[in-house]
Prior knowledge:
Blueprint: E1 5-14, E2 20-29, E3 66-68, E4 70-75, E5 85-90, E6 97-104, E7 112-120, E8 129-136, E9 142-149, E10 158-165, E11 172-179, E12 183-194, E13 203-205, E14 208-211, E15 220-223, E16 232-239, E17 254-255, E18 273-281, E19 289-290, E20 294-299, E21 303-309, E22 320-326
Parallel strand pairs: 14-20
Antiparallel strand pairs: 1-2, 3-6, 4-5, 5-12, 6-11, 7-10, 7-12, 8-9, 8-11, 13-15, 16-17, 16-18, 18-19, 18-20, 21-22
Amino acid sequence: MKNFVHQIIQQSLLVTATFLVSLPVFAHADNNGEPKNGREDFVTFCDCPNNLVQNPSFESGTTGWGWYGGNFYSDTYAAQCGAKSGQFQITNGSSNSFYQTITSGGISAGTTLSLGVYAGSHDPWSYNHWIGIQYFNSSWGWISETKVAVEGTLPNMSYYTLTSTVPAGTYYINVFGYGTGDWLKTDMWCVTTVCDNATNGGTIASSQTGCSPFDPAAFTNVASPSGGTGNLEIIWIKSTTNCPPASFDGAQWTTIPGATGLTYDPGPLTQTTCFRRCARRSGCTNYDAESNIITVTVKPALTFTTTPTSPTCAGGTNGKIQVDITGGTTPNYSYNWTRVGGGSGSAS
């Protein structure tokens, strides 16, 4: 036998109403075929950036978790990540669960969630066990769940994964485990949002010009953002810096509070301002899909002063009124004089 042997353990896990997962788990062995350095040499999934689950590996006991229909505690048995794992002894085979609420209204419908967890039981042949994600409305009314059957035999845990889309009306989201009897033991619960972001910001219209204060027509949606999956989330941004800005960094743009629709009405403006619509899909962090930039050009308000000169005597013809005009959208002004009362005169 070679000095270094790799053992490959492969399990196929049927995820309820989702997909079939075939997951290899590798272990190092010594010359006698025994696992080398115990569990530490198994390939593990212990890193979970942006995990929505608190105390996922039960290193703080059962803090953050609830349960009923059994006894639930933290112990070193079959631990995969860290020193502890969660141990659920089922005493009520018809009504039991351990669970954690991972969000209360914080995740939008249409968001895709990814779950990964180590799990196993002592007697998967005589009893059924499941782990998964459950969805509830704001009154804790049950909506749906996505789950996978646990078939791993302790003391070895298998790693289970599933993806699930948040249904409409969801407010509370739980991760859970339950079964019909025996024990269900788990470690390192990992739940993250899956980002399949929008790729095209669409098109908005249109650029306009007017005198201050100028109230432009509402911006219209020529083409909606597209690409990716999940619900669209919209923001509008504006800039008055070198409009349109030469750079698209955040320092040049300001998010407009409350502007979350496909169209936007900016209201009266007193300075030239650029606008852009940005989009992302639920579950994503960045608004990667950006529309074209439209510019509302605001010219200075039209102002004028009058300087009258009275005639030198009654009936004289050397009186005049001089009008000086500034601002407006063009220096080519037009004039319209109206004479009140009698007399004659000319305009130039």
